[in-house]
Amino acid sequence: FSCLVHPLTTMTTETALSSPPTATISRVVFSPSNPNQLLSSAWDKCTHLYDVESNAKVAVFEHSAPVLDCAFVDETTAFGGGIDKELVKYNLETGNTVVVGQHDNAIKCVRHCNNASAMVTGGWDKMVKMWDIRSQQGALAEAEQPDKVYAMAVAGNHIIVGTAGRHVYIWDIRNMSEVQQRRESSLKFQTKYIEAMPNDEGYVISSVDGKACVEYIDVSAEAQKGKFAFKCHRAKDGSGTEHIYPVNTIAFHPTYGTFATGGSDGYVSVWDLKAKCGVYRSHEYPVGVSSLSFNCDGTKLAVATSYLNDEGEKDHPDDAIYVRTVTDVNVRPKKK
Predict the structure, then answer these.
(1) What is the pLDDT of residues 230-264, one digit of tens each?
(2) φ and ψ at 55, to 5 degrees?
(3) Beta 139-144 vs 127-132: how paired, if at all?
(4) What single string gives the DSSP state of each residue in 222-289?
(5) Distance in angstroms (rounded) separating the CA atoms of residues 109 and 89
(6) What's the pTM?
(7) H-helix segments, the chain
(8) Is the pLDDT of residue 222 over 60?
(9) Beta bridge mates, 28
(10) 232 Cβ partners below 8 Å, 6+ apart?
(11) Is 318 within 8 Å of 305 (Cβ atoms)?
(12) CB-CB contact of 215 with 203 (8 Å)
């Protein structure tokens, strides 16, 4: 991937959502079934619900501290968690909230596990917990991790957890009493994000040093042949100096299985997993891309842009959420 020149493609239609979050956007995520329903968590201590078709903010769910992640269950229910250590259930129809559970430190990751009808949370307290989405009866399961949880994804019956210290633990939701696989990230620097493949066979992991790696859960030699790392979100200036940026977010296209990465360089790139090549590169956004999400039918891509303090405190553009109309040529795999 590293030596690719991205093809120039036609411009896509793009709309900036009105009333975006007023502080760093930690996550944007589309509903699993409603192509126009978008949720966004942010450091403004709120999770925001949008109807992207009408470009309207539908609801705001308040926390007592910055919200680090959010996830849908369906069109009526979602969850969020963050610095206040609480997992909060949102009723998207009534606007009501209820605290479902807690960690002993900030909740960094919130994911829905369809196979278990549960929410999964990962925290800076080195814990991963599973919660029943229908009740408030405490955690269904708890599993200690080797360090603070930085990234997490759910792939079928597996939970992939990336922690500080470059550990990657893979758990089976059917037996959380012991870890199924202990791995070390193939990337040399701190893990930034993990996203599962739509077919649940593997995941893509990214790091702070402009690299990502495609990994497979199956440990057989045949499956592991497909594993590879690649450089991305890097740029050379006029003097030839290479600038390397964190790869903050990854999102798979639901139909084609290609995936997008967003970096602190302010670009979105789309990659073909099987052909191991780039498909598309966006225009430059005013500031880094903090989160990406394709909608359920693959016709829209939400792009959250926020300054993530990569270069310390400095003036920066306002936080924003752009919704791009996806053009087929920008996400379709390369023809063989």
Answers:
(1) 999 999 888 989 999 999 999 999 999 999 999 99
(2) 50, 55
(3) antiparallel
(4) HHHTT-EEEE-SEEE-TTSPEEE--EEEEEE-TTT--EEEEETTS-EEEEETTTTEEEEE-PPPSS-E
(5) 14
(6) 0.95
(7) 221-224, 328-331
(8) yes
(9) 40
(10) 1, 2, 210, 211, 212, 247, 261, 263, 269, 271
(11) no
(12) yes
Q: What is the mean pLDDT of the segment spanning 55-69? A: 98
Which residues are within 8 A (CB) of 133 and not within 5 positions of it... i.e. 6 or more apart? 73, 77, 79, 89, 112, 117, 118, 119
Residue-level pLDDT at 1: 46
Cα–Cα distance for residue pair 101/81, rounded to 1 Å: 10
AA letter at 203 = Y
Residues 6+ apart with CB under 8 A from 9: 280, 327, 329, 330
Nearest to 110 by CA among 35, 47, 203: 47
- From the centroid of its chain, how far is CA 37? 17
CA of 317: how far to CAs of 19, 26, 102, 164, in Å? 15, 16, 34, 29
By the 8 A CB rule, do 53 and 70 touch? no
Cα of first residue to Cα of last residue in the chain, in angstroms, is: 16
Cβ pair 90, 107 in contact under 8 A: no
Neighbours of 6 (CB within 10 A): 14
Report d(CA 97, CA 77) in Å as an integer: 10
10: tokens are 């036609």
